[in-house]
Amino acid sequence: MDYGQTPWMEIAWNGIRFMAPADWQVGTIGKHYLMLEEESRPVLEFKWGQVKGAFSHQANLSRLAALHKNKLGKAVSECPLPAEWEEALGKYKATGFSWQGKTICGKGVILYCPACQNATLIQFYQRDSSKTEGVSQRLLRSFQDHREDNQIVWSVFGIRATIPDTLHLVRHRFEAGRFEMAFRSKEHKVTLHRWGPASFLLSNQDLSELAGKMLHHLWGEPYPVITVSRKAVEWSLAPPPTIWAYWWNRIKAKPSFQWFRLWHLEERNCVFGVEIEGKRPLDPRFLDRICAGYESV
To answer: How many CB atoms lie within 10 A of CB 103?
Structure first.
């Protein structure tokens, strides 16, 4: 594979972001885990998380060595970072490692960021190190584990969303024809939807009918849909504006204010949806920012 001629794409998930060859696809995804594959074979692995207290590179390297020995039967050893890696990862505290198998070898780095206190393991699975060396340098140069604007980018499987960092991932599902990511904060629950193919879903119904079938409110009945245009619909639900309703909404467990927008992206043959719930009235500016930051790539 000539990676110099291959297009690159952005991958971003739960705080980390990097660029990778478009032929490298996400094969396994967890809350703080990514495994990228090429032709169904592993090529790149990420594990990351917040560190509480002091961070020890040696302790993490020892855990990695034990895991590899038990799972793969391969010994992991610490090794110096290539000069290009050191330059690309200059803002991190970094420790390099490598391992060697019969048909595949591995090379990676354990990173610690003093600014955000995140620790990240990045591991390249190499069958021909001469072909992937340039890729690893470019990829590591693009790696980020936090932003300065209190936003988190999510970019996988052709969708991209920019979400405030106060919203934390609680659920994700990526299935053929249906993607879903749910986030929660103290104030809101935000769920991003993607359905497809739109040509099939809308062949015998319009967006209003589709919205009524896809989403149901807490009592099991379809929401009343307010049509915005032929390509977009939305609805909202709020309790009556009485003092009793206000206090009852504050103490009950389930949200009373709900809002949903669904729109058709004809050029991508898909339907996007944003669902937001909360115990307090929803700020229209917040709703618009979430929708504006959710797109197909």
So the answer is: 5
